[in-house]
Amino acid sequence: AQNMKEGLWEMTMTMEMPGMPMKMPPRTWTQCLTKKNCVPQEENKDCKVIKSEVKGDVFTWEIECKTREGTTTGTGRTVYKGDTFEGVVKVKQQGMEITQNLKGKWIGKCPK
């Protein structure tokens, strides 16, 4: 995304699952993002980005994860605004669709 500041980002994700009686607590993590790798996701060796596209400040991607329960697919969209972003990821897992709302803020340079 053109308007994306490279470096260390703090990201917070909240999840919405249909039929879930209670809200999941938000999850926060840090990640180094670059213009080549700007998918905001927690470290997961079972997942890989299969397609991504940048249009202006909007970054979209498709992801595929192999788990013991089978293959999970998802699509994501983030809008970068310099040192902040907002995004949403829709994940399909075992017939359920999970919505992950993302917010991120740039917090500094990446550790070497």
Order of helices and strands: EEEEEEE
Contiguous helical run count: 0
Q: Rg from C-alpha positions?
A: 14 Å
Proportion of residues in β-strands: over 45%
Biggest sheet descriptor: 7 strands, antiparallel
Structural class by secondary-structure content: mainly beta
Helix percent band: under 10%
Distance between the ends: 23 Å
Q: What is the strand arrangement across the widest sheet?
A: 2-1-7-6-5-4-3
Total number of beta strands: 7
Overall outline: globular
Please render the helix and strand layout as text.
Blueprint: E1 7-16, E2 27-33, E3 47-55, E4 58-67, E5 70-80, E6 84-93, E7 96-108
Antiparallel strand pairs: 1-2, 1-7, 3-4, 4-5, 5-6, 6-7
Briefly summarize what is shown.
The chain is mainly beta and 112 residues long. The chain has no helices and 7 strands.
Task: Explain this structure.
This protein is mostly beta strands and 112 residues long. The protein is 0% helix and 62% strand. The chain has strands at residues 7-16, 27-33, 47-55, 58-67, 70-80, 84-93, 96-108. The mean pLDDT is 88.
Question: What features would you highlight for this structure?
Answer:
single chain; 7-stranded antiparallel sheet
